[in-house]
Structures are given as structure tokens and as C-alpha cells.
Amino acid sequence: MISVLTYCLMDARTHARSLHGLDAEPKLPDGLDPGVGASFRAFIRLGHSHRQLITTLMGEAGGHPAQAGCLRVLSAQDGISQRGLARMLFLAPPSVTTMLQRMEKAGIVERRPDPADQRLTRVFLTDAGRALSEQVHARFTTYLTRMFDGFEPAELAEIERLLGRMADNITKAVE
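Request: output the structure for the sequence above.
Response:
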């Protein structure tokens, strides 16, 4: 039996193609540099593999994938305002409200009014939320260690630089 981590980190494109009997890459739009197409496919493949892994990690830990980022932020900034949490997660406030309602029902977080400003709601991890956060953090640490195994510091810096540049380009495109 293949391990969950191995499955999530395997070449998702090859797996998907084998499942659907596909043996050729999709045709690139006319005029697109083949390097751009290949880079984009690699980027999408990475995103897909990452989502699979987060789904698996959170499922094994008893949570929902969208909660992983919330747990990460709250473990570093317990008591952050709900508005601040939405900003940190790059999500719309109504989406965060819905997620927090589910997490509250599951006993992972509690929301309290800010004592100094009743207009603000502060979010805190419960004991169960801290335990879940630690469990997810440990698994995620293993994932990151395996993902970046063998990379030199200069390569990691280059990955950071290139992905940052891509993010900047996308931000400019949507502004």
C-alpha cells in the first residue's frame, strides 16, 4: 500500500494522465513560449499536490483543509481580531466567519468580544485547537522537510525570489 505522503508528493500529472488514459500534454495556446507553458504546468502540479497533502493532513487530524492556515496564524497570534485573521489569510471576512463558526462548533476555537473595543471580535484557540495545531504543525514540518530535501540555500533563495516575482506579477494583473 502506498503511503499517503508518498501519494500526495508523487507526480500528480502522471497519476491523473494514467487514470484518464491520456498520453499527450495539452496543446499550448498559439504564441505562448513552451517554457512558460511548462513552468505553468509545474506550478499547477505543485499547487495540486499541496492541496492534496493539506486535505490529507487535516483529514487525518480531524479538521478541514481551510483550517490549516487559520491554525497556523492563531498558534502564532492567539487572540488576533477576526478582521486581522481575515487579512492574514487573504480571505473575505464572511468566509472567515463561516470557517470560525464551524471551528467553534468543533471546539477548536472560541470567539470573544475585545474588552477595550466591543466592535472587535478576538479569536482564541481552545485546548483542543492547540492540540490539533501541534499535530498539523508536526505533519506539515515533515512535509516541508521532504519537499525541500536536497535543496541548497541558494536554490531556496532562488525559489523564493521567483515565486515572489510571480506573485507580484499576478497582483499587478488583478489590480
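The two ends are 47 Å apart (CA to CA).
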